[in-house]
Write a structure and sequence with these properties.
Largest sheet: 8 strands, parallel, barrel
Bound molecules: 3-methyl-2-oxobutanoic acid
Strand order of the largest sheet: 1-2-3-4-5-6-7-8
Oligomer: single chain
Order of helices and strands: HEHEHHEHEHEHHEHEEHH
Radius of gyration: 20 Å
Number of strands: 8
Number of domains: 2
Number of helices: 11
CATH topology of the largest domain: TIM Barrel
Distance between the termini: 43 Å
CATH class of the largest domain: Alpha Beta
CATH architecture of the largest domain: Alpha-Beta Barrel
Length: 263
């Protein structure tokens, strides 16, 4: 069965939703093979696989290239393409055009957009034109220069009220679900209870309707420090480094290839 945005939406209150990022056909097929219903081609690929410091330099061509690869690697999961910085901020028309490219050129099933009330008009235009939208509020990495860094959001009552308005605006505009990034667990739960669409938390506590993590963080591949909200389910960095060092040692010692690997 192929997951759709409408089916994901009906999971609220039925069961928690696991979401993971993927960046190419290989990582996507691993995620899909674990029966994870939604895969996000996050612009986090700027840091995880392209070597940038932030998500800000990531452009449409890079996102289209990686999203198309993820779509080819997936059979069942819903594929959500993250719209990169400045692909939708300048105007609703530009956002509509670029979102359409993800559907037409990269076979995405939905797009993700950062922002609350200020993005309601765009979300409504996308949904009206047949493009499902995953909202994203709280810490928005495309706004880190304005937010002053990667900080927990919604700590004051005024910020919490603003986040509630944002969440309501995104839901009313027609998003099928919403990422809540880095907010206190209590606020994550309050927002999740107030909304009729699923919340997908990342650093937003156990009260959310689902959780999303970055593929390389969960598997401990990068060898770099990870945020507090990450749980490493494996330490693949040391497994991979050990395997690569063994290969190098054996090539240098002349013990690889052995007769079993020879024709
Ligand atoms: O870019 C990304 O991977 C994301 C998720 C972490 C929510 O936006």
């Amino acid at each position: 069965m192929k997951w759709t945005a409408a089916k994901i939406r009906t999971l609220k209150g039925e069961r928690k939703i696991a979401v993971l990022t993927a960046y190419d056909a290989l990582t996507a097929s691993l995620v899909d093979g674990a029966d994870i219903p939604m895969v996000l081609v996050g612009d986090s690929l700027g840091m995880t696989v392209l070597g940038y410091e932030t998500t800000l330099p990531v452009g449409m061509d890079e996102m289209l290239h990686h999203t198309a690869a993820v779509s080819r690697g997936v059979e069942h999961a819903l594929v959500v393409a993250d719209m990169p910085f400045m692909s939708y901020q300048p105007s609703v028309a530009l956002g509509l055009e670029n979102a359409g490219r993800f559907i037409k050129e990269a076979d995405a099933d939905a797009v993700k957009i950062e922002g609350g009330t200020m993005r309601a008009e765009l979300i409504e235009a996308l949904v009206t034109n047949g493009i499902p939208v995953l909202g994203h509020i709280g810490l928005m990495p495309q706004s880190i220069k304005e937010m002053g860094g990667y900080k927990v959001q919604g700590k004051t009552s005024e910020q919490a009220r603003q986040l509630m308005d944002d969440a309501m605006a995104v839901e009313q505009a027609g998003a099928f679900a919403m990422v809540l990034e880095c907010v206190p667990a209590e606020l994550g739960e309050t927002l999740s209870k107030a909304l009729t669409i699923p919340t997908i938390g990342i650093g937003a506590g156990a009260g959310c309707d689902g959780q999303v993590l970055v593929f390389t963080d969960l598997l401990g591949i990068s060898g770099k420090p990870v945020p507090k909200f990450v749980k490493k389910y494996a330490d693949l960095n040391s497994v991979i480094t050990e395997a690569l060092s063994s290969y190098r040692n054996e090539v240098e010692a002349g013990s690889f290839p052995a007769t079993e690997q020879e024709y």
